Amino acid sequence: MADLPPNAPKDPIVTSSFSTPLMICSVLLMITVAWSLWDEMYGLRPWRAYQTRFAKAYATYLDKEVGRQKKLESDVYSAPEYKKLAAEADFLEAAAKAKDDAIAKQIAVLDSQRAAIGDAFKDARGKIGHLVYMLEIVPEKDKSEKESRLKDLNEAKAGTWKVDWPTADGSIEKDKKFTADQLNDTFTSLMAERAKLVAERGDNDAAGKVARAKANVYLSDHLPGLSAAALEGLRTSARDWDETLIQINVNPSGSSINNLGGAGLVDRCQSCHIGTDQKLVPPQLTLTKADLGMAKSNDAPFTSHPEPDLIKTHTLERFGCSPCHGGNGRAIDSVTRGHGRYEHWLWPLYYRENFDAGCQQCHAADMVTDHAEVLNHGRQLYRQRGCIGCHRYQGFDNQDEQLVSARQQITQLGSDKLQDELDIPRLQKLGDNAPDNEAANRYYAQANNLTVSVSRIDAQSAELERRSHTLLEEIKKVGPDLKDARLKLRKEWIPYWIGHTHEFRPTTKMPQFRLADDQVQAIAAFVWQSGITSPVLEHQPAGNATHGKELFEERGCLACHSMGEGANKMGGTFAANLSRVGEKENYDYIVRWVHNPRQRTRPYCPYEKRDLGPEDYAKHNLPYVFDLDHSKCPNDGHELAVQQPTVMPSLRLSIEDARDIASYLITQKHPDASYAAADYMDDPALKPKGEELVKHFGCAGCHEISGLEDEGRIGTELTNEGSKPIERLDFALYTEDAKRGVLPDGKPSIRNGHEVAWFDSKGFFEHKLENPGVYDQGKYHSNPMDALRMPKPNLYEPGDLEALVTFLLGSTDPTLPQEYMYKPQDRRRYVQEGWWVVTKYNCIGCHQIGIGQRSILMDLPMYQAENKQNLPPVLTTEGARVNPEWLKGFLANPSLSTTDTNRNGVRSYLQVRMPTFYLSDDEIRKLVLFFEAMSSQPEPYIQPKPPAITDTERAMARDLFTSPAAPCLKCHATGNAEHDKNAIAPNFLLAKDRLQTPWTTRWITDPAKIIPGTAMPSGLFKRDGDHWVFTGPVPTALQHYTGDQADLLVRYMFNLTPQEQAALVGRTPTSTKSSGNGGN
Amino acid sequence: MDWRQIWEVVSTPDNVPIVALLFLVPFYTWYAFRQAIANDQLIAIIGSDPGYAKSKYRKTQPWDPKWEREVHTWPYLMRMEFLVAIIITIILMVWSLTLNAPLEEPSNPNVTMNPAKAPWYFLGLQEMLVYFDPWIAGVIMPTLIIVGLMAVPYIDNNPLGNGYYTYRQRRFAIWTFLVGFIGLWVVMIVIGTFIRGPGWMWFWPGQTWDAERVDYAVNRNLDEVFGINGHWLAHLLPASSAPNAAIWARVIFGIFPLAIFFVLAGLLIHKICMMSEFSQKLYKRMSILQLVTMYTFLILMISLPVKILLRLVFTIKYIWVTPWFSI
After folding, report:
1. What mean pLDDT do residues A911-925 have?
2. Closest CB to A735 among B41, B42, B211
């Protein structure tokens, strides 16, 4: 036999031992089982560790707090005031005690008696009740049965029940007998007696309770926050903390919170963010990282919610966390999953800088949302930097769309009317020729109906024309009207501006387009050639530039405009920086603009789609006059655009002042500014190319341009941009880089200190806004017009970009149920609507409207210290202060005069001018309602009866009015020029129409409470019982007046006549201006 | 697919089996061959020695004379199965502890994924859709695979190789398996997973899967290559059928290359079957039914790589185009 290979000496199946592999595998299996148990308990439940850590740190913190609070409490308890109060309470309580005890004893006896008869009473009632029922169900005719049952009942009633009856002295009367009726009566009388005793007991210690309550009020006044006992309770619960999943579960009625899977809201965020649990950390405590002795950024989960006010209105029980913050509220197995920052969760947690985005989905109808500064800023940017010019956004200014639809309806109605008018004679004819009366009547009736419907169409058309008028007033463009380019601008400057927008004016609203030189030339040539050339501007003589500068700074131009470059820049960013305006504009045009910015060179007829000139008016023998009162087209009677579409108001300056300001502005230029000659601007061959480009780049979104008045928005609608699927956002050649976290500049993408991918909406928006052409890089376009068109927005302030990104991220298709949307139906709606108008015209450039909000002027150097009195009035209580009817008129015409308009109607002494905004009726309505709502005024306004005053009272009040301690006319204007030189407060004659009496009383008694820092002196009156008396030396006439002196003065003011005031002027010393902010 | 994308694909919990497959298939193939070759050597020694050949060790079976010829189920089989059960339990537990279910967002019919891939085990079928009609690739071929596998025991009349690994005694079966399973099925899955990127386009390893990629490729039917337009047939047909001449011409034309393929592939297979004396012996033992069945399935199996070659290298779309199906 041959040799077998040596590699198989023994039979491996039979001889080999399995013990080692079995041993190893068994051990591994045990380890795996242990691992799975650990994973079940801790690995999948990282929140356990968080909670343990939190409970420990929180208990330590509470230790400190308890100690501190205890010391505070012992201090307060040992204070003599408290001791006195407590002693009084103790005394009264002790005094009441003897009687209280006696009553308590009586009540105890009654209670034991009631308990004793309880069973018997129930038994009797049950038995009798049953027998009555048995009796009742026997039919009347079955007499014998009826009688037998009645007998049963009577027997039962006669029967007795034995009760062990406790008596007042404490002994027990065994087996006392009661009939059913007796039981009933006894029970009732016991209850009545008890109620009487309880009431008596309450009366007995009432005095003690009041005293005790007083002592407790003292305690709560002097011991803010939680008591030591409460803190100790919290500490106990922190120490004994048993790790547990904390879950918010909301199932809104009839709807579901979709982004949470459609089965209602389930948020487990608090399982880790345990500091936000209000049962464990009551709202009175605000936990910070420092409180817990933690400093690292990943210790954040333990703080309480940093905005307790927000949580009050958005309670966690109703809102949870994830609907506002994003994230996967159900996931608790890891931070990444919980925060939803992975590919497959569509609503990831917002980053810190974008937190406000969460507000937008419910507050989409707001322009200004409390607590959401970043979001507000983003909305404002969206509107002001002209994003809205290209990108539609639901709820943002869409008057242009409404106008188009109104015009379509007018056209439609016109053709309907024509049709009807043709049908009427036809039907009448049919009626005339009808074979019988019935048919004839039917035709006549139809003709009549049509006549009526024609008149109804007329009414509809009239309403639509009115609406068009309003809309034409409301439509504002972000940029200037380019029809006037030729009258206004320096020819050579235009191409330079288009190509170097942000270089020329670093804070301009206009975005920078990416254009080739030939494109710039074509656009400039088109703008130039499509400009209006006639009627030519009136030639203006030169003004005084020095006076112009003063006016510019005094009249309030700086509330919107800024002046100066770089560090010297001063003023608001709402409108253009005018530092180099002299380089580009024509003097005559500036004069016209400053004098009346709304003045158009030619009115525009949206119906004929062209600008009208004098020749159109001449055809109809009409003067070439067009304004808000002459706004009908001479050719077709439709509404014209008679104003420039600018928000710049008229300051009602005299033409001389306008020339002075213009003379000042024309000097604002760089000394060495020069522009290359631009002869091509007149090349007609460039015009069509330019027009094509202007259309392509959507210039008409922000500018009014001849022939392009009806151009729509060219950009994509952004209302739901934040919920666009990531697949629909074109990262183009950066797709892979974005997924890898490599930024377009090659650097790593860093958020929150971590390197992360930017392949999400946030990353897309950030880079798109930073450089809108970024997703074109590396792309080849056979037609250059295929390249991305979006220009680079001018986001020059550091927070601008994130604010816009936040706004866009929040612009989601709301996944929350409708009931969560903020659409208030009460007066908050007026606030919501009003903010749109307030921010549209930049009222907050001059006025403080909300509490804590600052106006632009407040921060300017010329309105500091004693010059604060030159600031425009604070409007925080405007709705309560003024009569809304008056306010309506004032907003329409702030000069309160049709003849003398170069002045302030109310505060004639202020240099800064309340301009005329030419608000539409709708806007005035919204503003008035806004102010009313901001001051919680009832709506509608009911004019109160004018306060009356008797002649005696008038005489008394006159003395008070002119008393040396309260020389009202020292500061208040009277209309007498000589006197008013030093006036710093409004004329009393306005009060009657303008002010509301309750507010006026509050104002004269404590003005500093309404407007801190006002020049109006506080403390003129003091409280005496239930009425106010004058603080200073009371004039003799009033010595015996028992009424309310503040009220008297107010009534006097409201009945003041011009004659009387004129007479009084001499009696009051005038003064130099004093410091403070003119309030009333 | 570049490194980051490879990692993305490999680390997806769905793809654990295919990653395991990448390693396990070569490993077990190697392991089986190792054992088979050792056995073959043993067989050679035993077979060459008449002493052994006449002994209780049948001459063609690799039993070591010192080994037990038969052992009891308990404990020898049971203990091994027990050990394997433990190991599998450990693997499954660790797997389920470390990897979560690969859940994704709710599906959105407006945004479909690119590439949209079948589960890994069907990726071979999905890849076949590139080369055949859906009717062929999705219905006929899978059915034939199943029927073919069912037919194996009835075709295979080689009595050797039961209960032990051997290569020499089952060369034909092993090669059929290697080509059919590893060469076609597994390779197709690997291609589907790692080579096919967005738009089901072919990306070589190292090439970034770019959803924006634009490819230009024109595939033609074989009749187009030969310019079959039916002009000639139109003259033969009655006037009423003349408009359909092109279609009929294509139908008729397609039969020829197909027939040629069948003949050539049949010859090739026949040659392979006749390569050794042993296989000739097996061939002679087979009934005509067995032979036809086996040849048919093998020809069909070869048709897949042939079609892949035609499509990828010669950009041929279909060989036989009919109004009802195309091959």
Report:
1. 93
2. B211
Cα separation, A989 vs A975, whole angstroms: 9
Kindly tell me the sign of the dihedral angle through the C-alpha atoms of B230, B234, B238, B244. Answer: positive
Kindly report the backbone phi and psi dihedral angles of residue A27, in degrees, each rounded to the nearest multiple of 5, phi listed first. Answer: -60, -45
Cβ distance B93 to A7 less than 8 Å, yes or no, reads no
Alpha-carbon distance values, B166 to A5, A260, B152, B278, B282 (Å): 16, 59, 18, 14, 17
Are B64 and A345 in contact (CB < 8 Å)? no
DSSP reduced 3-state for A395? coil
Distance (Å, whole) CA A953 – CA A915: 39
- Spatial separation of the C-alpha atoms in residues A1029 and B226, rounded to whole Å: 116
Are B62 and B39 a contacting pair, CB within 8 Å? yes
Entry pTM: 0.83
Question: What's the N-to-C CA distance of chain A in angstroms?
Answer: 127
Q: What angle do CA A280, A283, A289 make, to 5 degrees?
A: 75
Residue A351, min C-alpha distance to chain B (Å): 21
C-alpha distances (whole Å) from A844 to each of A353, A645, A817, A866 are 25, 21, 34, 22
* A1: nearest CB among B49, B100, B110: B49
Give A966's contacts (C-beta < 8 A, 6+ positions apart): A960, A1017, A1020, A1030, A1032
- Chain-centre distance of CA A1072, in angstroms? 41
Closest approach of chain A CAs to the CA of B142, in angstroms? 34
Phi/psi at B326 (5° precision): -135, 150
Give the span between the Cα atoms of A433 and A428, in whole angstroms.
9
Report how far residue B209's alpha carbon sits from residue A671's, in angstroms, rounded to the nearest whole number. 57
Name which of B123, B131, B145 is nearest B327 in CA terms: B131
Distance CA B192, CA B15 (A): 12
How close is the nearest chain A Cα to the Cα of B168, in Å?
18
> With an 8 Å Cβ cutoff, are A11 and B93 in contact?
no
Q: Do A5 and B51 touch (CB under 8 A)?
A: no
**Which among B38, B83, B90 has CB closest to A21?**
B83
Q: What band does A1078 get if pLDDT is binned at 50, 70 and 90?
A: very low
For the ranges A239-248, B107-116, B260-269, the maximum mean pLDDT occurs at B260-269
Q: Is the pLDDT of residue A51 over 50?
A: yes
d(C-alpha A653, C-alpha A594), whole Å: 8
User: In A598-665, where do the E strands start and end?
Assistant: 599-605, 610-611, 641-643
Across the interface, whether the CB atoms of B93 and A36 are under 8 A apart is answered yes
State how far residue B201 is from chain A, nearest Cα, in angstroms.
17
pLDDT digits (tens, 9 = 90+) for B142-162: 999 999 999 999 998 888 887
For B249, how many CA atoms within 13 A lie in the half-sphere containing its CB? 21
Please, what is the average pLDDT of chain A? 88
Pairing of β A610-611 and β A599-605: antiparallel
Of B66, B83, B211, the CB nearest to A22: B83
Residues of A in contact with B74 (CB under 8 A): none
Work out the minimum CA distance from B162 to partner chain A, whole angstroms: 18
CA A799 to chain centre: 20
* Residue with tokens 């910015």, as numbered in its chain: A597
CA-CA-CA-CA torsion sign (A922, A923, A924, A927): positive
ipTM of the complex: 0.81
| Contact list, B34 vs chain A (CB under 8 Å) | none
Residues A871, A912: contact at Cβ < 8 Å? yes
List the Cα angle A521/A491/A581 in 5-degree steps.
115
| B-interface mutation test, from A7, A332, A736, most B Cβ less than 10 A away | A736
Q: Which residues of B touch A6 (CB under 8 A)?
A: none
Is there a contact between B210 and A735 if contact means CB atoms under 8 Å apart? Answer: yes
